[in-house]
Specification:
- This protein has two domains: about 160 residues, no CATH class; about 120 residues, no CATH class.
- Helices cover about 65% and strands about 5% of the residues.
- The protein has 18 helices and four strands.
- The chain has a two-stranded parallel ribbon with strand order 1-2. The chain has a two-stranded antiparallel ribbon with strand order 3-4.
- Strand 3 and strand 4 form a beta hairpin.
- The chain is globular and about 70 Å long.
Length: about 350
Amino acid sequence: MAFIGLLPIILWELFSVVYFGFLFPNARYAKVGVYTFSNGVSQGVFYIIDFIFYETFPAIVTIMCALLLVINYKKIQIELFILGIGAVCQLMYVVYIGGDFMRGRFLLSSFFVIILISSIVISNKFTINSINDRSFTRSYYLYHFKKIQHYILKGHVICNIKRIVCSTKYESERKQLVALSIITYFIFLGTLSNVRQSIPGIVPSGFHGIVHERNFYFKATGLINRIKNNRLHPWYEQGLILRDRAKTEKFTLLVGPMGMLGYYAGINVTIIDNVGLTDSFIAHCPVNKRRIYRIDHAHPDVPQEYFDERIDGNVSLVWEDEELHQMYNELNTITTGKVFSLKRFETIFNFWLKHGL
């Protein structure tokens, strides 16, 4: 059973090694290792504190759920217990790497698992055998379903949920729905924290460089603002300009935040991410810790010869740093060579021995 559960990640890692040449995504090599161990743990702790301070309601609910699991650990099924250990290990890793600049982003997966396990534990404590309990469940859900039925849910979805709620055949599912609804209600109270964060001058941007990234994008990409004001994000407009330019010429750009811009620029524009999130060579270049400009974001020491070759097409046979030149040639073989060639797999293996997984 354990092997079956691990099968998806095993298959993915095999594919990742064969196709990409590495076990982990490119961002891992670009970001992890920016801090020393002590600085990373310190920043990771601040990442947790920042979430508790600014996202108070969901943080309190998650902590309460975690305490519930600790108190009832003997009653937790072994599968759920192992899942919970995985969530804790993920949180420990987030602290170890120094967290993130975006508030709460790396915490949500672990929090979701903790809340999910708690909902199952809570549901097992309910006994919906009495008429009063059954009436409460039915009235609770039907009241809320009638309010949102005409706005969100249609047809068979409503029928199936009502069938689960009202039929005595689905007691187990109904108990879990009750538990999940209670927890979800308190989680959505966390949106109240966005109100105080959006008022200028009320609260600082965060602890140690951690920011409320949703506020940054909300003015242009929030659904309501997008419909009411028809505002476009500058990166969207810049991407369209590059897309039009690519119709008449081929060019390569060196940019910083390339996600939205690169998406709208299209496949005919070559973009180099200056911190290496999408560039294998830059991601493996040594990090200059004096050039950390954002949490887990640092400008690596990239040789000028690399940019000359990628942007201007000027190929230098000799680089000032021959070790980085050799690494570039190896990565070029790994990322652009024939996928199933023996030379490529030998290069992958030798690269791992020299630079690690």
